Amino acid sequence: MKEKVGFIGLGIMGQGMAHNILKAGFPLTVWNRTAARMAPLVGAGAAAARSPADCAAQTTIIITCVSDTPDVKQVILGENGVIYAAAPGSLVIDMSTISPQVTQQVAAALAAKGVQMLDAPISGGSEGAAKGTLSIMVGGEASQVERARPVLQAMGQKITHVGGAGAGQMVKLVNQIVVVGTMLAVAEGLLFAQAGELDLDKTIEAIAGGAAGSWMLSNRGTQAIADDWRPGFTIDLQQKDLKLVLEAAASLGIPLLGTSLIHNLYRTLQARGLGQEGNHALLKALEYLAGRRGGD
Amino acid sequence: MKEKVGFIGLGIMGQGMAHNILKAGFPLTVWNRTAARMAPLVGAGAAAARSPADCAAQTTIIITCVSDTPDVKQVILGENGVIYAAAPGSLVIDMSTISPQVTQQVAAALAAKGVQMLDAPISGGSEGAAKGTLSIMVGGEASQVERARPVLQAMGQKITHVGGAGAGQMVKLVNQIVVVGTMLAVAEGLLFAQAGELDLDKTIEAIAGGAAGSWMLSNRGTQAIADDWRPGFTIDLQQKDLKLVLEAAASLGIPLLGTSLIHNLYRTLQARGLGQEGNHALLKALEYLAGRRGGD
User: Domains of chain A (ranges plus CATH)?
Assistant: First the structure.
C-alpha cells in the first residue's frame, strides 16, 4: 500500500521538500498557517487541508517542518493538532530542529494514541531542500525508519538512522556545534590574514586542501572574503539552534566554551541588526571587535 | 645548470624531504646537528657537510628545516652559519615554521650579502614528507619561486606562492589557527554527543558529508572516538606554533579569542604530561574540564 503523505509547514525548506514528495509520486495533502503558501503545491497536484488535524485525518505519514519547539507542540498537540485525528498506526515525522527533550515528550504523547514518531531534522539549506539533496538525521524505531525511507529518499540524499527517539535532534545539534565552531576557526584565520595584509584568495587556496580544509572554509570563507553576506543559513536561525544546544548542554551538565562564545558573538551582530545575514558574518563580529570595521 | 642542493635539519620531516630531493636527481649535501642522523642520507648518495657554512659553500640552493625561530637564526646567522659561506646569487629556502618577523630580518641580512631567501613552510605531516605530498606555502620573489619550483616539487604536491618575504610563514600561521579551531569545533561536538549517549560513529557519519564536514572531523575526530591519541602532530609542536600565532596577533593588534582559549586548553594537557599526544587530544582537555575523564 502506498503511503498517503501529509506535509505541515511550507516555509523556505518545506516548499522544496513537499514538491519533491509530489514528484516522487506520493499522494500529498498540505497545510500551512499562512494559507497562501499552499497555492503552489495545490497547483502542482496536492490537496489543501483545513487544519493539522484535517491533514492527519487524510494521510498515513504526516511530516512537520516548522520553525521552533513551540510550533511543533502547537501543530501536533495543540488545538486542531495532528494528535486529534491521526489514525493508530500512522507515522509522524518531525523534520524541524527542536528540543530533543520535547521531541521525546511529543513522541510519548503520540505513542499513547498508537501513533508512531520519528525525529528527522535536516541539513543542507534551501538549495538542498529544492534539489532533494538534504542530509537527514533520523531518531526512532528502526522499523519506522524503514517505513519512512521511500518518502525520506524523495527529499534527501544521505539518510542516517542515528538512534532512538530524540537522537536525530541530538545529532542535528552536534552538527550545529561543529558548523559554528568551524566557522569561528575560519573567521579567526581570515581576520589574522587580513591584519597581516595577505592575499585572502591565495591564503584559502594554499590551506584548503590540507588539515585546515572544511566545507565552511571552501564555501563560506570564500563568500566572506568577497564581502558577500547573503545567507545560506541566517544568524537568527543559527541563534535559535544554538539556544537549543546550550539548553541541552546545561541539562547534560557539560561546558561548551567555544559554542557559548560564538553564541555571544552572534548576539553582537543581532544587536547591530544583522540577524538576517548569513552565519559566515561571524567574521564581521571579529572585525568589529578588532576595530577593523566601521558601523554598518 | 642543475642546482646543487643543501639540506640542513634532518628531523622527522627533513629525513623524508631530503630523500625525495635525492630521488629527484639533485646532487645533495646534508648537515644535521646530531651527526648520526646524516648516515641514512649519506648511504643513499648524499654528501655530509661539517657545518651549515660548509653545506652552503658546496651548494646553490640551501634548504633549512629545523624546529623553531632560534634554530633558524643559529644555522643561518650564527657561528659557522650559512651566511658566512653562501655565494652571492645562491638561494636559501627556510621550510621551518617560525616567526614571520624574524623571517623578514633573516631575509634582509641575507639580501645584504646578495643571497636570496624564500620562506616555504609546509603542512602534511611526516607522512606527507615521506611521500612527497606536502603542501608548501611560499613567500618571496616570484623569480626565486620559479627557480625553486623543481626542488619544491620533489617534496610537495601543492606549491602556492602566497606573497612576499614572510607571507609563507603568515599563511602557515593562518593554517594553524584554522586547524586548531576546527579541532575545537569537532571536540565540542563530540563531547556533547558523548554526554547525550549518541553512537559516535553514526554521529560522524551523519554530519561529515555536509556543512559540518572537515579534514579534522573525518581524520582526527574518528581517531579521537577510537581513543587513539597517537600524534599526527604533537601538542608540544602545536603549542610552539600557537605561540608564534599569538605573538604575531599581538603585534598586529588583533584579538583571537578562540585561538587563545585553545592555547590554554592545550596547556592543561601539557600540565598533565600529555604534550607528546596528538593535537586531537583537545577532546581530552574538554573531558577533563567536564569531569568526564579520570586522571591518566
Answer: 5-164 (3.40.50.720), 170-290 (1.10.1040.10)
